[in-house]
Amino acid sequence: MTGPAPFDLSSLDLGPVNTDGSGSVAVTVTGDIFGGGTESETFSGLTTSTTETLNWTSLQDITLSEGGVGDEFGVDNIIVSASAPTPSAVPEPGTMLLLGTGLLGTLTAAGRRSRKA
Questions:
Q1: Measured between alpha carbons, how far is 67 from 53 in angstroms, rounded to an integer?
Q2: pTM for the model
Q3: Within a domain: residue 14?
Q4: Residue 116 falls within a domain, yes or no?
Q5: Helix, strand or coil for residue 62?
Q6: Per-residue pLDDT of the chain (117 residues; tens, 9 = 90+)
Q7: Residue 30 falls inside a structural domain
Q8: What Å distances lie between residue 45 and 71, 75, 84, CA to CA?
Q9: Structural domain boundaries enclosing 34
Q10: Fewer beta carbons under 10 A from the terminal one: N or C of the chain?
């Protein structure tokens, strides 16, 4: 699962495909964090569908993989939401231009007043 922008993964349901109770599965969920890094967690001993809460934020994609050979698993009820963009600590160039123009205008007006006096 890949998103065009960072997203948050709240929870998902994991469980074995074979629901007759004859075995258990292990599932590893790995999330690549937008901007670098990973989150990873393995859920083992799943014999029925189970809701797993993750609360991972700022992901760019997730990968689900079997924990062992032949572990067939199902996924349902994936709860995702859009991440809020991280605010920039550096002012935009337009803001700096507006501030500079206002300051220049103020200084020019003050200079004209002092010459008239």
A1: 18
A2: 0.65
A3: yes
A4: no
A5: strand
A6: 555 678 999 999 998 887 565 678 889 999 999 888 999 999 988 888 899 999 999 999 999 998 766 668 889 999 988 876 666 666 677 887 888 898 898 888 888 777 776
A7: yes
A8: 11, 15, 35
A9: 2-83
A10: C
